[in-house]
């Protein structure tokens, strides 16, 4: 009886550790994806500032940036579902919404959770 309880506890602990590692890996991925979109936006604005901007390059940047926004939102939604009160997640995503998406109202709601 005690051996069975120990095995069940061990399985629960291993499952928890696995979930925690998975969460951390995805949180790191979220941060990397945010960095990528910031770099894309920088490229977009640099191209736009040129005297003879390449319209096709600007369109390509715009398409990639939009897809990246959606990808980042998907990662955040999955992480939020796993841990809706994780302070680092809320801080990283809230600051992304504020600084990158320029959506102060939505950022404030996220950061106040």
What's the story with the biggest beta sheet?
Answer: none
Average of per-residue pLDDT values: 90
Fraction of residues in H or I helices: over 70%
Please, how many helices?
4
**Structure summary, number of beta strands:** 0
- Point out poorly predicted stretches: none
| Broad shape | elongated
- C-alpha end-to-end distance: 43 Å
Please trace the helix and strand order, writing H or E for each element. HHHH
Bin the strand percentage.
Answer: under 5%
Question: In terms of structural class, how would the helical and strand content be classed?
Answer: mainly alpha
- What's the gyration radius in Å? 20 Å
Write down the domain tally.
Answer: 1
Written description of the protein model:
The chain is mainly alpha-helical. Helices cover 86% and strands 0% of the residues. The protein has helices at 2-49, 55-82, 87-99, 104-111. The model has no long low-confidence stretch (mean pLDDT 90).
Characteristic key phrases:
mainly alpha; 113 residues
Sum this structure up briefly.
The protein is mostly helical and 113 residues long. It has helices at 2-49, 55-82, 87-99, 104-111.
Question: Could you outline the blueprint of secondary structure elements for this entry?
Answer:
Blueprint: H1 2-49, H2 55-82, H3 87-99, H4 104-111
Helix pairs in contact: 1-2, 1-3, 3-4
């Amino acid at each position: 009886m005690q051996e069975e309880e120990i095995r069940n506890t061990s399985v629960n602990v291993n499952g928890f550790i696995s979930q925690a590692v998975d969460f951390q890996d995805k949180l790191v991925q979220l941060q990397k994806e945010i960095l990528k979109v910031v770099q894309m936006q920088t490229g977009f604005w640099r191209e736009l500032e040129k005297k003879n901007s390449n319209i096709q390059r600007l369109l390509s940047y715009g398409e990639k940036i939009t897809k990246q926004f959606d990808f980042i939102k998907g990662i955040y939604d999955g992480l939020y579902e796993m841990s809706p009160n994780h302070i680092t997640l809320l801080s990283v995503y809230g600051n992304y919404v504020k600084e990158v998406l320029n959506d102060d109202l939505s950022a404030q709601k996220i950061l106040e959770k």
